[in-house]
Here is the input.
Amino acid sequence: MPGKKIFISGDEAVAEAVRMARPHVISAYPITPQTVTVERISDFVEDGSLKSEYLHVESEHSAMSAAIGAAAVGARTFTATSSQGLLYMAETLPYASGARFPIVMMNANRTVATPWALLSDHRDSLSQLDSGWMQVYCEDAQEAFDMILQAYRIAEDPRVMSPVMVNLDGFILTHTYEMVDLPDQEEVDAFLPPYRTENRMDLEEPRTVCYASLDEYMEFHMKQEFDMRKARAVIAEVDRDFGIRFGRQYGGLLEKYRCEDADAVIFTLGSVTGTVRSVIDSMRGNGYRVGLVKMRFVRPFPEDEVVDIAEKVKAIGVLDRDLSIGYEGIVFSNVSSSVLRACSAPAMVNYIGGLGGRNISKDNIQEMFLELLRAADGEKGKRVRFVNVGSEYDG
Here is the structure.
């Protein structure tokens, strides 16, 4: 395809995609490890390659509030955050989704306090699943670039009109350099036309978006739910169109790898996916029938796709870089509820790993698959397992 290939980090890949998406307003507040993204965007505004209003606000709460204000008058907007910053703006997230503003936000996944840590897990974003935002998780810098462009197209679709959170594993993706294909601006403009919406403030037709009566509130959120369900088809449609135009396609809501005859599969989010792929290729060479399900979107949740997989395999492992204290991993809970629809439910194990950025090695992943294969043969084991910890801490 026309364009160029450059060596950049995941943070910079997001910034390049934002530049090519041509948002009207950027609301920026730096927080490690997303700071490079808003710094690069400020460079683009300064050199004129991005004509946008750049707002350097005083907090993450203000960053989202400014994005909401801009979106309310029909502007395409972007912001970025991470970890405690996302939690600080949590109050404003339902305002954006409830008002049906198609804001795109990059979140650099980082563990939350206490204790303090800087490396990556998914506790920050997964804690906000009920906020009404779509959530997508990227495997590498190329997917991060591509998903920013897809996110605007999905969010701004009249059938959807909901904000999107694009998640990158902090430092693992944000600060790792890779070769990334950048298309020509003309190709991006053809894929993502200028934003036009009727959902904006109009002095000629004033309306309220802040209050609903007892007779309207529930129906209002039912409509929001029904439109989020419509987003599943829009996500698949946009992904197919992106593949036709740019030669890269991601499977829509989720991607399956070597699942056709698999006895056991592991569900993943984010950057660990590549490591799991490598282990699968090695184990396949030794005769093990194992596969991968890369969860891309957690909201909207790919319920039908999960049920289809569950009806074909004997064991499912869900690798959560998150823990809902007092129960299990959040992704595991979501997958489990869908699997209940399957005609014959497979064995299931929740693997909790990578909290605070702890390594998940190839050996760890192979051990998971071997345990899942034993479970597929009927061996009973623990429902929740902790990965790469001392035996005295494991479940």
